[in-house]
Amino acid sequence: MILSMLGDPEATVQCSRAGCTLPAETRIMWRNPKIHDETRTKVWLACAEHEGYLAEFLRARNFPVATEPFTGA
């Protein structure tokens, strides 16, 4: 999704929650320690409404999770 929006200054990056079309406000960085070492980090983007849901979904699986504001880049 993010790659398809590169170069489009009018594009809004959306939340990673299935079916959500709200703009992303938070970057959720995580990894699955059973298959990835510390150098591999995945990123989900979240709107304000789904930040807690997505982060807790990952934490419930004992994945390391960190969040930071998403500024669009």
Order of helices and strands: HEEHE
| Beta-strand content | 15-25%
Helix share of residues? 10-25%
Distance N to C terminus: 13 Å
Radius of gyration: 13 Å
**Overall pLDDT metric:** 89
Helix/sheet category: alpha+beta
Number of strands: 3
Oligomer, anyone? Answer: single chain
Give a written overview of the molecule.
- The protein has 73 residues and is of the alpha+beta class.
- The chain has two helices and three strands, in the order H-E-E-H-E.
- The chain has helices at residues 2-5, 51-59, and strands spanning 26-30, 42-46, 65-69.
- The chain has a three-stranded antiparallel sheet with strand order 2-1-3, covered by helices on one side.
- The longest helix is centred in the C-terminal third of the chain and has 9 residues, at 51-59.
- The two termini are 13 Å apart.
How are the elements arranged and paired?
Blueprint: H1 2-5, E1 26-30, E2 42-46, H2 51-59, E3 65-69
Antiparallel strand pairs: 1-2, 1-3
